[in-house]
Each structure stands twice: as structure tokens, then as C-alpha cells.
Amino acid sequence: CFDCKVMNCRILFHHILEKEMPQIETRVVLVQEAGKHEELLKALEEIKVPYIKTDTLEELGDSDSPEFETIFVVSDFQDSIFSNLCKADCRVIGPPLVLHCAQKGEPLPFSCRPLYCASMLNLVLCFTGFRKKDELVKLVTLVHHMGGIIRRDFSSKVTHLVANSTHGDKFRIAVSLGTPILKAEWIYKAWEKRNEIFCLNTDDDFRNQFKVPPFQDCMLSFLGFSDDEKANMEEMTEMQGGHYLPVGDERCTHLVVEESTVKDLPFEPLKKLYVVKQEWFWGSIQMDARAGESMYLFEKSESPGLKKSVSLLSLSTPNSNRKRRRLKETLAQLTRETDMSPFPPRKRPSAEHSLSIGSLLDISNTPESSTTSGETPKSCARPSKNSTPLPLKQSARWQVAKELYQTESNYVDILTTIIQLFQVPLEKEGQLGGPILAQEEIKTIFGSIPDILDVHTKIKEDLEDLMMNWTESKSIGDIILKYSKDLLKTYPPFVNFFEMSKETITRCEKQKPRFHAFLKINQAKPECGRQSLAELLIRPVQRLPSVALLLNDIKKHTAEENPDKVTLERAIESLKEVMTHINEDKRKTEAQRQFFDVVYEVDGCPANLLSSHRSLVQRLETVALGDDLCDRGEQVTLFLFNDCLESWEADSSVLMCWLIQ
Fold first, then answer.
1. Which helix (H) or strand (E) covers residue 92, if one does?
2. Are 490 and 415 in contact (CB under 8 A)?
3. At 641, is the secondary structure helix, strand, or coil?
4. 162, 186 Cβ separation under 8 angstroms
5. How many CA atoms are closer than 13 Å to the CA of 476, on its beta-carbon side?
6. Region Disordered: which residues (predicted)?
7. Count of beta carbons in the 10 Å neighbourhood of residue 427
8. Alpha-carbon gap, residue 358 to 355, rounded angstroms
9. 210 has pLDDT over 80
């Protein structure tokens, strides 16, 4: 058949090729110290490559044989033998490369350059800012010895930029693409580790030691900030590789301005000086690389928003008529957005007042129960599909129902701001500079906020529909009852771990400069209403008491014959049940936490102390007055549980137990 003839032809063709083109065998020559490397000899046997040992090239004779492809293994890439082999265009590799191939079960690679190890295999490097040719040649040579590839021009294929300066197009492009930007020391350190087979030069912990800091080559001054803010920013500047100078110093490269307090500069800046807004400073720290200054230039203007809009129009609309038309649209938009904030105007609360939880059943003093919270905020995230109609005659019941809807809409906007402005950017993959926080930290901070938002979005939509089709007989209580189980499911996980959420924010802000910068940038945005993330996150803790107050008020203005009167009472009771469950759950969680603190504190704590029914009632530090249990004057800690009393002597690490009858 035809297929058989084709197969026979292929077999005959390969047979002829094998006869006419004899196979060339690979031969490895171990030079001097390489021949004494026992692990290397074992690796060559594993990959079945023949080898010979030699101390001098003269012993080998002519290595250029048609029967063998000779590969020289040299331990020192700086001695005279290595230089002579390179001049003769011989293939030279290092012992680590042989060990790497044996470990991977791969053949020895072909390379036209000497290849010592594979620690930079598959890496594509580009250089910028190097003025000394000798230094650059040395770095390029080391990269080639470690298997790396060099590109003169920067492109998306470049995996790492090695920078000696934060200026230039290559640096800017690398920042925009999120390409790691490293110092030359990274290459030198990698070469020092060339004999470590398992050394990964792309490992984050190793690579981060050599990152080019955001403010390298920068001399910063700060204008318009408070003393505390300025001290903080100066400390951050030095942490991020820069230096700070007094305002007006001619050596300064950047003047960072607080645009909300500074309207004009106290001096005429030099042309080489970048005058930037503080967002440039925090943005550079957040993405762990110096941000482009052109986006953050400070300019004196009576209407900064308008000037920016005009500038953008001049860049994007060459036609003057289109410019004027878009300018009118921009002016109209600016007019509409004058009070686009989900937060009623108020003074910034102190941290102690705004962040104390207390009991959820205490509904007598919540921020949303004040009269100012009755103002309807303009939605910054999810605008209502319809506006609430105004009946000709507004009843007291309608007024309070309207306040309930407005505060619910306001609350949904706040939750949306928390998620869109903070949680989503933190969870986003491919962040410039890598993840700002670990996923566990993000989960601890935000908890069940998305679930709470989902429930309250539905409540808001039902309230909106009720207000759009208002009649006095419409049931408000049914809406709350409809979602009471969802509230019971979503609120306890958040409220119980709210303190842990605050602690995580505080700890990460202190330990992680990029997170601190992230908060600085986003908390300054108008959507936050000049409140911190921790202050925003307390809103879910306050919302249910606020709703209970408003429902009580609606019930007062509901006629006895109205069926919603009874429904409202049931709704209020359901909210109290949710809040009671939350408080009880929170007490249990706190008690368990205290219990485990005791277990971790007491050395050799018996396992039988842990019990599901046991809880810590009180802890008391005492001093022994007698000699019965321990020496007089010794420190003794008493732990009173619900079913027993434990005493612990710190010096003797003895835990004694008395059961309570």
C-alpha cells in the first residue's frame, strides 16, 4: 500500500543519513581541581557522559578532534587556563552547571560563551545609568557566565532592569510594566553564590535585598505639612533610600507640597527642581519605585480641578470647538460634583471615641442616630435608580421612613467605598512592587464586609421601592424581618474580630511602609470623608443599633390600627436578638482568647485544663503570706474559672488546681 511505501522510504533515508553522517560523541575534560570533585564525577556518570582528567592542556594534546565534541570543565573562571581556552574558542563550563543538568536529567547545554552555572538561566537583563564601560563589561560577563541574556534596548521581554540611576526612559518603562529594578550588587552577590546549586537569584527574599529604593538619587524637601507629618515623611524618605533638606536648599531635587494648605511657593523654584504633590511621595512608596513626576506636578491655580480638566482637554482635543464644548461639560460636571460624598459634614472624631465598640445593645448614642445623619448624601458608588418622590403632605411616619432609607443608602455607599477603595486594590493581582499585604492580613482586616454589603444593598433596594410607591399601609417591618437571618449570619464574624482587624491595620501600617503609603493616598480621597480605614470599618458595628432606633421612632408615628405596628415590634425584637447573639458570641470569643492566653503563658500547662465548658472568670496577681503552698513573699497568680481555681507560681512553674463545688 501507499503508506507502507512511504514508511519504507523514511527508514531507508534515516539509514543513509546515519552512514554518511557519523555520530559525534561528547567528551568532558575535567581540568585540575574539577577532576578532584567527587560529586561532579558521580553526576557525569549519571548522565552517561565520558570524561577524562588533566592538570595541563599540554597533556591533552590537540583537543580539536572530529570524533569528539570536547567540553572543558573548569572550576576557576579567572585563571590562565580559562583564558587560554576562551582564546581557542573552546566550550567551557563550570562544575555547578554539570550538577544542575544531572539533577534535572538534562544533557549538557550548548553555549557559544563560557557558562559556569545556571543560576540566571532564562533571565533577560537590561542595564541603565552605567557610565563606566569597564564596570558594565564586567557585569555583562558575569551575567553570561550565569546563563543570563542581555538586551541593549528595553522591551516587555526583559525580566529585570539593573539600574545605576532612577532617570531615563528605561527606568520609567520598567516602573510602568512592573519589571523588577535592581542594583548591580544583585549580580555580584549572585556570582558569590555561583557554587550553590539550589540558589535562586529570582527568589523574592534574595532579590528584595537589592531593589532600587524609590528615592535613590533624590533630595527631598517638604512644604506645608505639620511638624509630625513632616517628621514622619523625612523618616520615610531615609527608609526609602533618599535624603531630605530644608526648603530652599539648591541641592534639592524634589519639593513635596501639601496642596490643601499651600497656595503659592515662597520662592521661585529652579528649573531642575520638581515641585510635586504629596501623592507622588506616597505613590512612590506604595508601588516601591519612583513614580513619574509629570502626573503629580504642583501648580498654582484658583481652581485646580478646572485647570486639570482644561489641561487634559488641550492634550486630547485638537479642535477648538470640541475644546469649548467639553469645557462646558466639565464645568457642569464640576458643579454637580460639589458635594459628592457619602459622609455628612462633621468634625473628625477622636480615635478613642469613634473606635470604642461597647455593647451593641446600647443604642442610645450612635453617629447615625443624630439629626445630621438624616441628610441625604449623594451616592458616590451606586446611584439610586430613582429619586424618592415627595408627597404633597408629608406624614411624620414618612419622614422617619425617609431617614431610614437615606441612612441605609449612605451606609451602603460607605461599605462600597471600603471595598472599592481599599479591599479590591489590595487583592488585585499584578500590583506594581508586588502584593502590599498578604491574603491572610487582607481577610483579617475586611472579614465579612462583602457579605454585609450584599445584605444591605438588598435592604436599600426594598426600602427604595417602598418609598417610590409610598402609602401609609406599606410595611417597613417586613423588610427587616425578611433579612434578619442574613444579618444574623453576616454580622457576628465581623464584630467578633473587629478588634483584631484594628490591630492588624495598626501593625501593618507600622511594619509595612507600602501599606502606610496606600492608606495615606486613599484616606485623603473625598470618598472617605476625611476618615481613616479603621474609622470606616466601625460603621458596621454601629449600624444595627442605629436601625433599631429608627424603627422605634417609626413605630411611635404608626397608628394603632396600622398592621405595620405589630410587624415593626417583631422587627425590633429580631434586631435585638441579632445584637444579643452578637454580644454573646463576642463574649465567648473574648473568653476563649483569654483562656488560650493563659495556656500559652503557663509553662507545662496540663492538657486537661482545656475544656469546652470551662471559661476564665477572673485573673488575680497575689503575694503569698504563709508557707503552706509556697515560700512567703512569692508571687502567685490565681486563675478563677467557672468550675475551678488554679494557682501558678512563676518561680517554680507549678500549677495547682482546686475544684469548685
1. strand 91-93
2. no
3. strand
4. yes
5. 31
6. 331-393
7. 16
8. 9
9. yes
